[in-house]
Amino acid sequence: MSFLDYDFMQRALIAAVLTGLAAPAVGTYLVQRRLALMGDGLGHVALTGVAVGLLTGWAPVWTSVAVAVLGALAIDAVRAKGRASADVALAMLFYGGIAGGVLITGLAGSTAATLNTYLFGSITTVSSDDLWVVAVLAVVVIALGVGLAPQLFAVCQDEEFARVSGLPVRLYSMLIAVMAAVTVTVAMRTVGLLLVSALMVVPVATAQQLTRSFRTTFALAMALGVVPSLGGVVFSYYVDVAPGASIVVASLCGFVLAWPLGSLLRRRRNARSVNGEDPRVTGAHVPTEQHPHQHDDECGHPKVEHGDHSDYLHDGHLHAAHGRHYDEH
Question: 127 and 105 in contact (C-beta within 8 Å)?
Answer without folding.
Answer: no
